[in-house]
Every structure is written in structure tokens, then in C-alpha cells.
Amino acid sequence: MSKAQTSILISGAASGIGRATAICLAKEGVALTLFDRNASAMAEVESACRNRGAAVIASAGDASLDTDVAAAVSRAVKAHGFLSGVVAAAGIARKGDVTTLTDETWEITLAVNLTGPFLLARHAVPHLLRNPSSAFVAVSSDSGVRGSRGYAAYSASKHGVVGLIRCMALDHGPQGLRSNVVCPSFVDTPMADGLLKESGGGYDRAFYERRVPLGRFARPDEVADAIDHLLSPQAGYANGMVYMLDGGTTAGTFG
Ligand SMILES: NC(=O)c1ccc[n+]([C@@H]2O[C@H](COP(=O)([O-])OP(=O)(O)OC[C@H]3O[C@@H](n4cnc5c(N)ncnc54)[C@H](O)[C@@H]3O)[C@@H](O)[C@H]2O)c1
């Protein structure tokens, strides 16, 4: 299937990795549906995609709410005629260990980061299965395969995403849907800025960069390129893959 025959919905499209993915796919002529709770930031991404020649619509809503997700999927199918791919990138990071996390922080983190991709899958998969070649890509994290000190809810939610995608690969691979998950370490986005601001005690950017064998954070466009590949026919045999896009951070002990 060529890119021009591709219709992809992206959650978290207003910022960071979701935004970079939208711009990357727009340049290739993919029909896009942007989904984010931040309508004004999403409007800027929508025009950036349109300026690059893409057929694009935006659907504002909350990724943790079934009705909002259902509406976004249904708008995608109505506007573009079909849906062949989904990128679940919306996410939040909240600090806390098990003794300090409030019920509210635990619940919202799980709701956005784990229930969100589940709801997208629930509503999108029936449409994806109508295409001969379709793909679902979720954005987890290096915290989805190992713990992160002080981020118990975040790490638990991201481990959950890896499990969800592995089950989708088994359940829907036989029906032609490929499901994969990207696990970046630090990426230069507003989320990373926020995490650095709230971490004190010498845990600054230089500290975290020293722990990456490649010595730097990822750029959002590098993550977008990996997602683009997983969505494409060039990744036609990738299913259930946990793609560690982390500069070697989880390859072993380093630094
Ligand atoms: N930046 C990093 O260092 C990093 C590292 C590993 C994984 N990730 C993951 O990558 C994904 C994208 O993060 P980012 O760095 O681009 O962050 P970001 O904050 O730049 O963008 C996240 C987007 O998700 C949207 N969003 C948040 N909650 C939402 C909700 N309930 N409903 C709809 N939209 C919502 C926000 O409005 C925002 O546009 C997240 O899942 C994050 O956990 C980020």
C-alpha cells in the first residue's frame, strides 16, 4: 500500500513525538486524523500538515475517555473513507513512589497512558482489520521495560502498554494487523523539559545524557522516523516488536 493510500490517526498529535510524527507523515502524503486534548496547539499542527499537502482533520478530545476516542476514530473513517494505521502517542508523566502517589495521580496516569491506547485499539481495530495491510504503533518508554525511580505509576503504565501490544500482536496478527511498540528514553520534547525541571539534586540534563551510550537525548523526528517505518510495508514482518529507541540506554550497564 503506498503512503497516498494510507489513513492514520495520531493521538497526542499536538506536541512532541505525536506532532513530529504528524509532520513526517504529512510530507509523505498520508491522510491524517490528529487527536489531542490541546485543541489550540493541535490547530497549529493541522495547518503545518495541510501546508505540506496532507489531507488532515483534527479531533479534540481526551484520550482516556471512551466517547472522545470513539468520536475521533469515527471522524477519521468519515473524513478519509478508511483507517489503515494508528499511533498512540498521548501520554503524561507524574512523579511519585508508592508511598507518595495519590489515588488521583495513579488513576490519571493509568487512564491516559494505558487505558488510552486500549480505547484507541478497541475502536480502531475493527476498521484496521478491513485493510489488507494495517498497523498499530504505541509509544511506551524505556520505563516500559525497566523501572524508573520516583515514577512508579508512569513505569507501571508503560509496562502495561508493552503487554497490551504483545497481546494485540498475537490476537490480530493472524488477521493481518501488525502491532508494535516504540520505547524511547529521553526525547527532546515539552514532556522531557518538565521532567528535568522537577528532578533536583544534580539530576540535570548532563546527568541523564551521560547515561546514554550515544551521549544525547533523541530528537522527536528520530522517533517519528521509527514510527513511520513501523507503519510502512517495509516493516511488513514486524509484529509484537518492542523497539528500544534509546541510544543504547537499556543495552546494559553504562556509566
Ligand atoms: N519525551 C520523553 O522523554 C519520552 C520518553 C519516553 C516516552 N515518551 C512517551 O512519548 C509519548 C509522547 O510524549 P512527548 O514527549 O511527545 O510529550 P508531550 O508532552 O510533548 O506531548 C504529549 C501530548 O499528549 C497530549 N495528551 C496528554 N494527555 C492527553 C489526554 N488525556 N488526551 C489527549 N491528549 C493528551 C498532550 O496534550 C500533548 O500534546 C508519551 O506517551 C510519553 O510517555 C516520552
Largest sheet: 7 strands, parallel
- State the CATH superfamily name: NAD(P)-binding Rossmann-like Domain
- Category from helices, strands and their pairing: alpha/beta
Beginning-to-end CA distance, first to last residue: 44 Å
Give the strand tally: 7
Question: Could you name the CATH topology?
Answer: Rossmann fold
* CATH architecture annotation name: 3-Layer(aba) Sandwich
Number of helices: 8
Which spans of ≥5 residues are poorly predicted at pLDDT below 50? none
Mean pLDDT metric = 96
Bound molecule kinds, no repeats: nicotinamide-adenine-dinucleotide
Helical residue percent band: 40-55%
CATH class: Alpha Beta
State the domain count: 1
Strand order of the largest sheet: 3-2-1-4-5-6-7
Shape designation: globular
Strand content: 5-15%
Order of helices and strands: EHEHEHEHEHEHHHE
* Radius of gyration computed on alpha carbons: 17 Å
Walk me through what this model shows:
- The protein is built from eight helices and seven strands, in the order βαβαβαβαβαβαααβ.
- The protein is α/β, with parallel strands linked by helices and 255 residues long.
- Helix 4 packs parallel to helix 5.
- The mean pLDDT is 96.
